[in-house]
Amino acid sequence: MRCIGVYNASSSVHGDYPTRFYLPGYSPKSLHKGAFREMDFVKEKLGVEVQFGKYSFMVYNVAAKMTIFRNLGHIDVGIEVVPVKALADSMSSGVSYFEQFVWDLEKRGTSNIDIPVLILGIDV
């Protein structure tokens, strides 16, 4: 597989985490870096995530992170790049794959907070 080119424009979202649900008297350690979320690539309102990790990260990218970036006005649509099963089988254990992810999304149905996302399965 060859990489033709990559563009990464300000793909981090900074902010403070809410503290209103902490128990009285609890004081968390200071976060030196501050709170933020990152997306692999953002260009012209398109967010792209490349995920070759555990299944939970694929779901988080599409069902939560892309929605957050859309709600903040950074993206309108997304692309999630994931391995197909044949490629995942040659990787470390626990790697999720395109066929599994698409099946789960179809069975999950749609929600009023979903954004258009292309799930792109790749093989080598």
- Give the helices and strands as they follow along the chain: EEEEHEHHE
The main sheet comes to:
4 strands, mixed
Helix/strand-derived class? alpha/beta
| The first-level CATH class name of the domain at 41-122 | Alpha Beta
Number of helices: 3
CATH topology (level 3) name of the domain at 41-122: Restriction Endonuclease
Shape: globular
Radius of gyration: 17 Å
Round the mean pLDDT to the nearest integer and report it.
Answer: 80
Instruction: Give the helix proportion (percent range).
Output: 25-40%
Q: How many DSSP-defined strands? A: 6
Strand content: 15-25%
Q: Write down the oligomeric state.
A: single chain
First-residue to last-residue Cα separation:
6 Å
Strand order of the largest sheet: 3-4-5-6
What are the segments in which pLDDT stays under 50 over at least 5 consecutive residues? 1-11
- What is the annotated CATH architecture of the domain at 41-122? 3-Layer(aba) Sandwich
Overview of the structural elements:
The chain has 124 residues and is α/β, with parallel strands linked by helices. The protein has a domain at 41-122: 3-Layer(aba) Sandwich (Restriction Endonuclease), CATH 3.40.91.20. It is built from three helices and six strands. It has helices spanning 55-71, 85-89, 98-108; strands at 12-15, 35-38, 41-43, 46-50, 77-83, 117-122. 19% of the residues are buried.
Search tags:
two-stranded antiparallel ribbon, 23% strand, alpha/beta, disordered N terminus, Restriction Endonuclease, 124 residues, globular, 4-stranded mixed sheet
